[in-house]
């Protein structure tokens, strides 16, 4: 989450095309002896960090400090590419509900609210300060009133899960029951019955969600916490709902910059400010999401070349793009 995509508005149409092949990058990196420390099996004894240094609680505090230092919000740019990469957010039904996990200062939320005039966005982050900046940014946005469609709340889903007012236990159980009934025998009358029961219940929560977005968020968690975090995400989606994913890919430029002493796990690194970053291969992402119960719809590397304007140095960025569905 701490290193954002950069590029001018004029570059948007070509910015997320395939600028190079990931397999060619892999071959180059794996032949380069200067990158050997990224490829070796990880030995915990070789890391100066204690095993507790990358715990969820410590990571939560590190990210809070990070957002305090970058409280102006200038560190993050609005993710204007989002609706091109995830057009489902435009074609969804009116009043669809989206949960943005790890929203930071709102750089993902704002294009969603702009793109669909009726969509409702719930956004959580461990940092109260980041959410306050997000609210200020969205309140100041021109042309459209977002106030009634944007609902930020403080939550570290890797520690506590999502609050019951968002999706209560009863709604989660109903969603899982509908999923089971429909997949087992296609009994639509049973599904209608459960819908009627849900509508009669006193409204205690927002109900199950149409979308969850995880944009440069999963990589900030300790790897051992990722399966539980994804199980939490699938539990708040309605059957057929989508999780939209983008995060750091294996051999991204930022991974190759880390020295050996900042390696704290297999493809996991700790920045000098204490925040964690993991770099994913496609197989790891697939295993994590399938293990949580998702169906893989799209999963690929995005390989982008950009140029540092200060030194004219070419940068090769690698991200993982994915769309995952809760089974019908």
TrEMBL record:
Its EC number is 2.1.1.-. Keywords: Methyltransferase, Transferase. InterPro entries: METTL2/6/8-like (IPR026113), SAM-dependent_MTases_sf (IPR029063). GO terms for molecular function: RNA methyltransferase activity; S-adenosylmethionine-dependent methyltransferase activity. It holds the Pfam family Methyltransf_23. GO terms for biological process: methylation. S-adenosyl-L-methionine-dependent methyltransferase. Belongs to the methyltransferase superfamily. METL family. This is tRNA N(3)-methylcytidine methyltransferase. It comes from Protea cynaroides.
């Amino acid at each position: 989450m701490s290193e954002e995509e950069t590029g001018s508005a004029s570059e948007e149409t070509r910015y997320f095309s395939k600028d190079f092949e990931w397999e060619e990058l892999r071959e180059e990196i794996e032949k380069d002896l200067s990158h050997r420390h990224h490829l070796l099996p990880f030995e915990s004894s070789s890391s100066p960090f204690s095993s507790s240094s990358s715990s969820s609680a410590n990571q939560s505090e590190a990210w809070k400090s990070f957002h305090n230092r970058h409280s102006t919000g200038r560190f993050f740019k609005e993710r204007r590419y989002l609706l091109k990469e995830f057009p489902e957010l435009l074609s969804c039904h009116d009043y669809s509900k989206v949960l943005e996990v790890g929203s930071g200062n709102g750089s993902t939320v704002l294009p969603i609210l702009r793109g669909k005039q009726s969509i409702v966005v719930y956004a959580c982050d461990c940092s109260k300060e980041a959410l306050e900046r997000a609210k200020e940014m969205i309140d100041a946005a021109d042309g459209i009133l977002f106030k009634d469609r944007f609902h930020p709340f403080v939550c570290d889903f890797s520690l506590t899960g999502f609050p019951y007012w968002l999706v209560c236990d009863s709604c989660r159980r109903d969603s899982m029951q509908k999923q089971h009934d429909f997949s087992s025998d296609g009994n639509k009358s049973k599904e209608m019955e459960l819908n009627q029961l849900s509508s009669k219940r006193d409204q205690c929560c927002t109900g199950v969600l149409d979308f969850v977005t995880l944009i440069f968020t999963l990589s900030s968690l300790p790897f051992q916490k990722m399966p539980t975090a994804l199980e939490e995400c699938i539990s708040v989606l309605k059957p057929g709902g989508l999780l939209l994913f983008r995060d750091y890919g294996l051999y991204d430029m930022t991974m190759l910059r880390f020295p050996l002493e900042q390696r704290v796990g297999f493809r996991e690194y700790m920045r000098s400010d204490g925040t964690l970053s993991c770099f994913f291969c496609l197989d790891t992402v697939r295993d994590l999401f399938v293990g949580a119960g998702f169906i893989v719809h799209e999963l690929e590397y995005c390989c982008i070349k950009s140029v540092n304007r200060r030194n004219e140095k070419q940068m090769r960025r690698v991200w993982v793009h994915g769309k995952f569905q809760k089974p019908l």
